[in-house]
Amino acid sequence: MRASLRRIWGMLFRHVSLYRRSWPRLLELAYWPTLQMVIWGLTARFFAARLGVAAAGASGALLTAASVLLGGVLLWEFALRSQMGVAISFLEEIWSRNLGHVFVSPLRPAELVTALFTISVLRTLAGVLPAVLLAWMLYAFNLFAMGPVLILFMVNLMAMGWWVSLAVVSLILRHGAGAEALAWSVLFGLAPFSCVFYPVSTLPAALRPLALALPSAHVFEGMRAVLNHGVIAWGHLGWAIGLNALWMAAAALLFARQFRAARVRGALLTIGE
User: What's the rounded mean pLDDT across residues 120-138?
Assistant: First the structure.
């Protein structure tokens, strides 16, 4: 166990070292979450001002709508940043031609995945928390006002980012550099079905089962229940946890299969070339 922890720490230390003395890397972590929060916060303020003129006395509903919008933006960043944290950290090994060297060592695939997940948590917190703080300073929106249930929302969205990233890494192992663009695009493709800004009932009936198969849709349904009605939708949280466990198991099996195949054909040494 101690040897395994040392190997995980070695991988973690390698990636943390990339950020310790590189302010551009640190800036990049918070850049997109902050930019998204500012843009959508200004959009929410604009609509609140325009609708407030047309519907005097509806200020409470307008504030709730703005909170749902900002809450959706900030929570969705937890999924995006966790997914990119794993995928980009893996790509760093490919770009530096280090993947073959890593697996010449005693490092096991499960230890690599554990290290990548840990790096993802650090990257996500470093990227999203400044945006959460600025949302409070600029728009008086306190994400933590949702209470302890917020932790369950964040953990479920980060877990979704992890299994999506494992699927992306599996495709990179199978198809090489041609699949690298998926590290930035896959989760954006799932955003319409995650119902970040609108309820699942807004989708066409044929697409609702697809949305309900994603943990994120249940998380955002739960978020709206808290912000709109002050209640915790435990049913949606239960579905989110169960679906994350199911998809994580499937993604782990896919990764294990593609990793074995890549090692057999020698792709760990040539991938990215």
Answer: 92
Contact 87, 165 (CB under 8 A): yes
Provide the token pair at 184.
């930035």
> Domain ranges in the chain?
2-270
pLDDT of residue 227: 86
Beta strand ranges found along the chain (DSSP E): none
Instruction: Judge whether 114 and 8 are in contact, CB under 8 Å.
Output: yes
| Cα 217 from chain centre | 13
Residue linked to tokens 């640190």:
26
What one-letter code names the amino acid at 257?
Answer: R
Based on DSSP, count helices (H) and strands (E) in the chain, helices before strands.
11, 0
- What is the C-alpha end-to-end distance of the chain, expressed in Å? 35
* Higher pLDDT among residues 140 and 122, named by residue: 122
| CA–CA dist 73, 190 (Å, integer) | 14
pLDDT > 70? residue 60: no
Predicted pLDDT of residue 27: 86
- Taking the C-alpha atoms of 154, 128, 85 and 246 in order, what is their torsion angle to the nearest 10 degrees? 10
What mean pLDDT is predicted for residues 40-69?
67
Is the pLDDT score of 56 beyond 70? no
Question: How much of the chain is helix, strand and coil, in % rounded to 5?
Answer: 85, 0, 15
Q: Which residues contact 62 (CB under 8 A, 6 or more apart)?
A: 47, 48, 51, 52, 55
pTM for the whole structure: 0.91
**Alpha-carbon span 259 to 108, nearest angstrom:** 11
Query: Which two three-digit tokens encode residue 225?
Result: 């229940």
CA 236 to chain centre: 19
- Between helix 59-95 and helix 215-229 the angle, nearest 10°, is 150
